[in-house]
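task queued by scheduler; priority normal; single chain, no ligands, no partner chains; default sampling; output format set to structure tokens
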Amino acid sequence: MIRGGRWLSPLDVRDLTGQESRTDRPCVELLASLGYLPTNGGDPEQLASEGRLVELCPIFVPKGFRCDAASIPRVLWGIYPPWARSNRAAVLHDYLYTVQPCSRERADALFREALLSCGVSSARAWIMWRAVRLGGGGYWNARTPEDVQAAREQAARNGGSLEVSP
């Protein structure tokens, strides 16, 4: 069974919806870094008690990062709102797709884990994970090496994570 990790900070955002070019989509900017400690299949408390917490590598989405939350088609917003309980997981996932510090498969697995840590039900987390597995490849593959490098440089300047543990 997949378990959620631990959020290291609250989500603090400024709503930019309507101020960006894609006005039909939500848009937010992080006002403070967002930290997440993935489980990597282990229980953080147990790993800490065993002195193995170093096996867990926190992920930090830097202050200033902008994203559109969950990229859910408008027709489904009534069932799966793009900005809801899953908001922190969506920001994390958008960041991982932007700076590509790991494989797409790992980014999507972290999304599912993060959804659970946000309190999203297992069934809904699976559906959202499956949706990004089916529909996320276009965005991931459209990112040129130059786009990724520019995003990584900006993230590094602002304290964002550039590597994710396997």
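post-processing summary
- The chain has a mean pLDDT of 83.
- The chain has one domain: 6-157.
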